[in-house]
Amino acid sequence: MSQSDIGDWYRGIPQITRYWFTGSIIVPLIARFGLVSMKSLILSFELVFYRFQIWRTITAVFFFPITPMTGFHYLIQLYFLYSYSTRLETGIFDGRPADYVFMLIFNWICLVIIGFIAPLMMLMEPMILSALYVWCQLNRDTIVSFWFGTRFKAMYLPWVLVAFNWILRGGGLAELIGIVVGHLYFFLMFKYPQDFGGTAFLSTPQFLYKYFPNRRGGVSGFGEAPSFRRDRPDDRGQGQGRHNWGQGNVLGGAN
User: Fold this and answer.
1) Domain span holding position 178
2) 214-250: pLDDT as tens digits
3) pLDDT tens-digit profile of 93-151?
4) Is residue 47 in a domain?
5) pTM surpassing 0.70?
6) Looking at the domain assignment, is residue 90 inside a domain?
7) Of the candidates 212, 196, 247, which has an alpha carbon nearest to the alpha carbon of residue 92?
């Protein structure tokens, strides 16, 4: 693959996913090459609140230690970030970057709070799992393919990843936290208002529309999966109703 091909591929990544993907490469690499200490990038309640090192709440989302033992797992995380963030941004959030940014901000805030309590020093894995979980719930009946030719519905993918990580690395807590946060967003934004007729607790702040304006040609109305609609500044007065969850791509398939 030539440099021009790589450049075309990179420029073709959706805007928000491109920012997230780029940060998840740059931050680990500057730590890997010793330009910044790894200890200055992780989440720490004491250092954030008592020494006002606020940047840790952000760098903890992008940082992952790259070593000979963790390099492959890091690349797998980048794949999931690129693949499922792209599918969300060009699917349910197509043409509405502000709504996608709000989802990421909501998940990030929840993870930071949980990270202070757990404690959890690195948030890259749970942040990626939270986005992947939302896609899997919106495309729960889509058949995805995993390693060794296994095939199952998308709704099971997050749990398969938890089990897979537990077997290979003896972990799984970060993935479980990501699932909890992803489910919280999905429940409050989609499930509760639609299936239970409850109040819509989440709403994208107006200032985000200023910096990430809606684009024409995207999905008609935010919150559809695919037929669910929420009132927005540009589509007020339109009703809500039950929906059939949307369809998506198989794991590892064409984007």
Assistant:
1) 68-211
2) 987 554 445 445 444 333 334 333 333 334 434 444 4
3) 999 999 999 999 999 999 999 999 988 999 999 999 999 999 999 999 999 888 777 88
4) no
5) yes
6) yes
7) 247
